[in-house]
Write a structure and sequence with these properties.
The protein is of the alpha/beta class and 403 residues long. Helices cover 35% and strands 22% of the residues. The strands form 6 sheets. It has an 8-stranded mixed sheet with strand order 12-11-8-13-16-17-19-20, with helices on both faces. Strands 2-1-3-4-5 form a 5-stranded parallel sheet, sandwiched between helices. Helix 4 packs across helix 6, helix 5 packs across helix 8 and helix 10 crosses helix 14. The structure holds cytidine-5'-triphosphate (CTP). Cytidine-5'-triphosphate binds next to helix 12 and strand 16.
């Protein structure tokens, strides 16, 4: 079982560390906790000790703590150190190698990877000193999770909130638990969400894609040890944060095409899970379109967008895999077979989006897998998470064959 040392420091969000300890334990991790003196004012060590069944390291000179030199013992025990919530003060100390209490001394002594999850007032976060320290820690190879934006304890909106406990637990999981290493040293590019084509400065043509299927693929690829680039259009879900995952946000099809083209240079796999607009306005209005009095209809002239999957299929080099989706409301297999051939894809995941809503936004998906010169492989109705995992297994298997 992997060991996680959780270092709790004196931010109001310290109470969320209690939930995090539980969430990490549920993922099968063994957790021990150290707290700064300030953190103990917010959550007492007894709480963490009861949850973890280990004493909590607070004082460098505590005779009752585990081991002869307790901070070194904890530092050496851990497979991963997680500083959560991390205050601006502890971040500043870490960036400068200061070790004036049990927490900072153990953090200086550990050779395990260190993940830092800051939570603080938005002005503290934005302070140039904090940003300078964060950059130093990044350069030192520390794994940083960006704070969330939202309602702060101070009663106003700002950036500095601790991310959701589930997102932190997933972050820890991607650092620590790879299901297997079948995609290690592989770069996977996943597009997800929907593209939007502007009509005028305030309106756009869009679609119902939520991004859930793409996120499931990203998580599965990360768990298989891949490095992932997400190219995200508009989404209704939280995108995974991981040190092995970078996110490029785009709006239009053209922006997505440019990002894909760039990222494909050194990618092993492209998965086009995005719902891409097929048409855009010939010339979007520069000013907001007015509903001129008496006008009984309004004509839009649309022109085709670039087919991103098709151009990726055309330029792919030997050993590179291109995976597309086919969203169909009728003649699923026949239409998807055409796409497989037209776009020179290695795999098409055919998706029945019949009905007004179909798979969009749903937790489950029923797909059929098409590959050149093979019979369609119909997968049963599964959660999107399970489809993602199985698709990643298939991708890994194909990569092994190709290389
Ligand atoms: N796709 C793309 N670029 C586009 C349109 C679609 O890369 N301009 C990709 C999608 O991400 C998906 C695959 O092509 O992986 C099939 O998308 P789909 O919308 O099902 O089909 P289209 O190619 O757009 O064809 P049609 O709308 O006629 O069904």
């Amino acid at each position: 079982m992997k060991h996680v040392a959780v270092y709790v420091t004196g931010s109001i969000a310290a109470y969320k560390a209690v939930e995090l300890v539980r969430a990490l334990q549920k993922k099968g991790l063994t957790v021990r906790v150290a707290e700064t003196k300030a953190a103990t004012k917010l959550v007492g060590p007894v709480t963490f000790a009861s949850l973890t069944k280990h004493s909590v390291l607070v004082d460098l000179w505590d005779k009752s703590a585990e081991g002869h030199v307790p901070h070194i013992e904890l530092a050496d025990w851990a497979d991963l150190a997680v500083v959560v919530p991390a205050t601006a003060n502890v971040i500043a100390k870490m960036a400068n190698g200061i070790a004036d209490d049990a927490v900072t001394a153990a953090l200086l002594a550990t050779s395990a990877p260190i993940a830092i999850i800051p939570a603080m007032n938005s002005h503290m976060w934005g302070n140039p000193a904090t940003q300078r320290n964060i950059n130093v820690l990044k350069q030192d190879g520390r794994l940083l999770m960006e704070p969330a934006t939202g309602y702060l304890a101070e009663g106003y909106q700002g950036k500095g909130r601790l991310p959701a406990v589930s997102a932190i637990a997933n972050f820890v999981e991607t650092v620590l638990i790879a299901d297997d290493d079948q995609l290690s040293k592989r770069k996977v590019v996943v597009t997800l969400g929907g593209t939007r084509e502007p009509l005028d400065p305030v309106r756009f043509l869009g679609n119902r894609s939520s991004g859930k299927m793409g996120v499931a693929i990203v998580r599965a690829a990360l768990n298989a040890g891949a490095t992932v680039t997400i190219i995200a259009g508009s989404v209704q879900v939280q995108l995974p944060q991981s040190p092995h995952c970078q996110i490029i946000k785009v709006t239009t099809t053209e922006e997505m095409a440019t990002a894909v083209n760039q990222e494909l240079n050194d990618a092993d796999v492209l998965v086009m899970a995005a719902a891409v607009a097929d048409f855009k306005l010939a010339s979007p209005a520069q000013q907001k379109i007015k509903k001129a009095a008496g006008r009984s209809n309004y004509q839009l002239t649309l022109v085709p967008t670039i087919d991103i999957l098709k151009s990726a299929g055309q330029r792919k080099r030997p050993g590179q895999l291109v995976v597309g989706f086919a969203a169909e409301t009728n003649d699923l297999i026949a239409n998807a077979q055409k796409k497989l051939a037209n776009k020179n894809a290695d795999v098409i995941v055919a998706n029945d989006v019949g009905g007004l809503h179909g798979a969009f936004g749903s937790e489950d998906n029923r797909v059929t897998i098409l590959q050149p010169n093979q019979d369609p492989d119909k997968w049963p109705l599964m959660s999107k998470k399970a489809v993602g995992k199985r698709l990643v297994d298939l991708i890994a298997q194909l990569l092994r064959k190709e290389n």
